[in-house]
Amino acid sequence: MASVDYYFPPLRWSRLKLLDSGCYADVYLAGFKNSKHDRFYQLFALKTAKLFQRSSSLEKELRIYNDLKHCPEIITCFREQLTVKGGDLLYNLLLEYAPCGTLSKLIHKYSRNNVNNINDDVSHYSHLETNVQIYTRMILRGLSHIHSKGYVHCDLKPDNILVFPSDQNDTGHQLKIADFGLAKEPGEVIPRDRYKLRRFRGTPIYMSPESVQGRIETTLDIWSLGCVVVEMCTGRRPWQLGVDYEKPKDLMLMLAFSEKSPKVPEYMSKDGRDFLSKCLARDPRNRWSAQMLLDHPYVSESVEQ
């Protein structure tokens, strides 16, 4: 049975099931109630945390979502709301619900169906890479908007990119960037040691060489995008546990002090390899901006037509 929240009017909704549980918040599938027929007629994602104890990250996200409104490649936050449940005062964000899940789930589906057949049938990979080009352009449009407003996402990865159904392109999907809990806001000064070793925030396998040394700039998101593109093309994470590193600390030391970058697939198109070279340059000064990458032939508007 759904767990009903009691809250301030006028909205009436209920939690339906837990979708994810993290350090800062829990995410539920929830629905508005149609009291006349006692049915749920609109689904949404509910991100919730105890007020004052864990809610500061959600309050930060609300500020960012409000500033990034009206970008089709960033999820919509409908509103905030306080509720009372089990004696606890909760802070909630009501967000768009992605019925197709995350990009991680989509990558797993494609890798199972396509990537394993690359050596047997090149057409399988050709179709996959066409989709990757379209998805990459979507992510870039979102990143370009984020960066134009002065933000750095800081945790761009497939788990934080949501998938929606769409009839606007051949993939049948629309990607939207989500989860701004670790984002750097305009003018924010982040202590350099927050991104070092034991105190590290974020997901190390998608972090850039300079970020693990405490330099947090938009170039971090571009490196992360390159890692996501590699993962979309190969079905594997950009760095492999047991192959490239044994412990997270080893990975961070490798990023900071070696000359290694994620391996670019040999079977990728020439334009694709060149695109990744602009994302995965170890020197952040040599990485292209999101706006520059939108003009790269690999993600030109023609790939969506």
TrEMBL record:
Source organism superkingdom: Eukaryota
A GO term for molecular function: ATP binding
Entry keyword Kinase: yes
Organism: Trema orientale
UniProt keyword list: Kinase, Serine/threonine-protein kinase, Transferase
SUPFAM superfamilies in alphabetical order: Protein kinase-like (PK-like) (SSF56112)
Pfam families named among the record's database cross-references: Pkinase
The keyword Kinase is assigned to this record: yes
InterPro entries: Kinase-like_dom_sf, Plant_MAPKKK, Prot_kinase_dom, Ser/Thr_kinase_AS
BP GO terms, sorted: signal transduction
Descriptive protein name: Serine/threonine protein kinase
Cross-referenced Gene3D superfamilies: Transferase(Phosphotransferase) domain 1 (1.10.510.10)
Membrane spanning stretches: none
Residue intervals of the Protein kinase domain: 13-299
PANTHER family cross-referenced by the UniProt entry: CCR4-NOT TRANSCRIPTIONAL COMPLEX SUBUNIT CAF120-RELATED, PROTEIN KINASE SUPERFAMILY PROTEIN
